[in-house]
Amino acid sequence: MKRPARVRALFALVVIAVSVYIAVTVPVRLGLDLRGGTQIVLETRSTPTAEADGEATDRTLEVLRGRVDALGVAEPTIVRSGEDRIIVELPGVQDPRKAADVLGRTAQLSVHPVLGTAAGTDKPKGEGERILADEDGERLRLDAARLTGDDVKGAEARFDQQSGAGWHVTVDFEDGKGWAGLTGEAACHPAGDPQRRVAIVLDGKIISSPQVDPSVSCDVGITGGSTQITGSFTSDEARELALLVEGGALPVPVETVEQRTVGPTLGAEAIESSAWAAVIGTALTAIFIIVVYRLMGFLATLALACYGLISYAALAGLGATLTLPGLAGFVLAIGMAVDANVLVFERAREEYGRRNRPSGRSALTAGFKGAFSAIADSNVTTLIAAALLFLLASGPVKGFGVTLGIGVLASMISALVITRVLAEFAVARRWVHRRPEVTGLASIGRVRAYLTRRDPQLMRRPRRWLAVSALVLVVTGAGIAVRGLDFGVEFTGGRLIEYSTGSAVDPDRARAALADAGFPQAVVQSSGDDRLTVRTEELTNAEAVEVAEVVAEVGGGAEKVRDELIGPSLGDELRRNALIALGLALGAQLLYLAVRFRWMFGTAAVATLAHDVVILTGVFAWLGKPIDGVFLAALLTVIGYSVNDSVVVFDRVRELWAKDRRAPLARSTNRAILQTVPRTVNTGIGVLFILAALAVLGGDSLTDFALALLIGVLVGTYSSVLTASPLAVELEAYGGGRKRGRGRGHGGSGRAKSGAEEHSGRAGAASRGE
Asked: What is the mean pLDDT of residues 645-671?
């Protein structure tokens, strides 16, 4: 074994060993959409006296951390996101009302002397005075605050068993003199006088305004620095009040801009369905490549298993959160790994067809060498899409970008290192050398043999293919104008709640019941035999409870399985980021392809990507499917996948042009297409197995995602061959490119070998003029 082969083998062993260790010792952190729970995104707001900068957000996070810990939630997560956002994850919390109320309260505590009662038209007079209603609705005139939340040392909820007064909150102040002075002043007024009262205010509302006990002496007050806040508290209300008082005030106010709740049942179903989709889709793909490539296909299957191990270990080792779209990205990246193996094997088959007495080792070496640039370029373009998802998306879609990026890198290690080590070891065996047909590389394959016999001249009339593409573009694009786009709550703001009902519910009946209950704008859809989805404008948590009661009444019971709340500011931001992501994706692809190839190839590829985006969006418009964050993930994935096929074709055009710079572009492009079609067909079939499994077995939550990818893959495969290539030919013809030797349509007359014939070693056929 030569030194490079030993280095590759050692590297593969180290990667696999480390991956096994991490997979066994470090568990993957599941997102809330898989294990169930609530995620709340809070955004800090500036006030006239405090700016919501990074420092204020950090101080706010620490206060919120204390509140979250006091809620008693197992394994909560609270992290800062950007300059002014805080993400709180509460596993197992299905009712977000209490958590949202506790987290969103500013908790500005202050204690005031009472100056007297106030009439309905009275206004504050002196500086710092306030007029607020007490517990019984009586308006009190309050002097400026003497104590604030900063003076509180601790607070505790207690139950008075002796007097039977119920729950109260005991508050201890840091400096007892301040509390003694305040109560001593109040004690100087006669019993029953409003000025003998002390008002405790929380967030602009009087929560307690007790009279100072008659036993307290004037100017002496209550010593010890402790007091009780009494009222008709339940145990939960008393604990919540103690939590807010002790935790202190938030430095700046916060607003809930996003709230997601997923039931544990839906999460368990998603894990099970995605796992089955991964197993069945991977098994079908493995069987397919073993049938096509025999021994090499079997070794590629082993490498795919290593890919799964490496991806899982990378997720665990990086501490990344595995979300539902992330699972889909994990499964989809299997197709990318298959693509890399197919590229190598098809190149090796070409090498067998080109030489009279080839060896398995030389064919494999040539295959890896020839396929490397196409593999690198196609994976870089996919990584661009994954990076944009990570940088511009939020929530589960960001998780999809992470897993897709990890999957692409793992697929390159799997195909270029592990597969190569296994394949080179196998072909070096004597029994394999004596039986080259067992490798699956010694024959050119049925697709290539068919193309060799027919020798189609696809680029003879490129405008015909462009006309077909334009027709499809117009028909699908009309759906956007005729039907419009059904934007999801991520882009419009609002609330989407999905229920599992006791029996099947007619959406019209549920819609009428919600209208009678005061929700006339609710959009109700049935998403299964016993699933009902309600989409409205922004609702409070209390209003969401009313909606649940109405659905339970018409559905014979209702269990919330999903709840998403998106604030209008976040909806605008997500919509803006979606457009930025699409623009950057197209611009980044154009820049990369212009650098790696010629300008006309980059322009043709990006125009084809825009063509694919419009078609996929138009199909979803005709079908009435929602345009949401998951669709955006699918769309950017289609962009990455579609450009893969274009890159493979253009990479071959570049190679053929380098060998014969006098050849017209149309002829070189036609040869490149014929040479790469076997790879396109085999890769497409492998990916379709994966996506079909996701669509059928992935459950309701992944159906639209898998459908978008299925449509995108089919359209992308067609357009990369029969839209991007003809467009590049036309751009070269009319953009000042190389015109020499160009005939009316095909690129010259005379005799020339087709790509399939050249690499199969068969006799050339006359290339037909137009």
From this structure: 85
